[in-house]
Specification:
Blueprint lengths: L1 H22 L6 H25 L3 H28 L7 H18 L3 H30 L3 H27 L2
Length: 175
């Protein structure tokens, strides 16, 4: 339950920051969007790497391997795109809130072992992917002005929707 609260805090931070931008009629810029997307991917890579170190559950480990592989690949595509476009990703309040919440969650997960770790990791992945997917759909993709960035975010969303479905399936089976 504590892990869900922490994941919920990360989700709230992302949505609050995105919502504040919308309320102020200032949507995130492409450089900010690039930074947010990269940060979210890096967070999931780090969590997946932790799961690979700590879990012995085959389903959890396979999922974690997918997270590391897929999020590294999307982040590599994002880096190539910003380099091609000559854009420097811009740190922002949303990226900072995500990083802060993720660091707290990582600290909590690091202390867990066995099935407690597996349940907490997967619960966090479900919450994180719901949040990121929602932010992509509602804020990041609509706010992106560059068509190539918008397309990359759309492709990422499709991949991450699959991650969410996979995580939800594992969550229903992991004990």
């Amino acid at each position: 339950m504590l892990m869900m609260k922490i994941a919920g805090a990360a989700a709230a931070a992302l949505l609050l920051s995105a919502g504040m931008a919308n309320a102020q009629s200032t949507r995130p810029t492409d450089p900010q969007i690039a930074h947010i997307a990269y940060t979210a991917g890096a967070i999931d890579v780090k969590a997946g790497e932790l799961a690979l170190k700590k879990s012995r559950n085959k389903a959890v480990r396979a999922f974690a391997q997918d997270m590391v592989r897929d999020h590294k690949a999307v982040n590599a595509q994002a880096l190539a795109l910003v380099k091609k476009l000559g854009v420097t990703p811009e740190d922002n309040a949303t990226s900072q809130a995500l990083s802060k919440a993720a660091a707290a969650e990582y600290g909590k997960l690091s202390k867990l072992k066995g099935s407690a770790f597996n349940r907490a990791y997967i619960a966090n992945e479900v919450a994180f992917h719901k949040t990121v997917n929602g932010a992509l759909e509602q804020t990041l993709i609509p706010s992106a002005s560059n068509p190539e960035l918008k397309a990359l975010l759309g492709t990422g969303l499709k991949v991450f929707q699959g991650h969410l479905a996979h995580a939800e399936h594992i969550e229903s089976t992991v004990k």
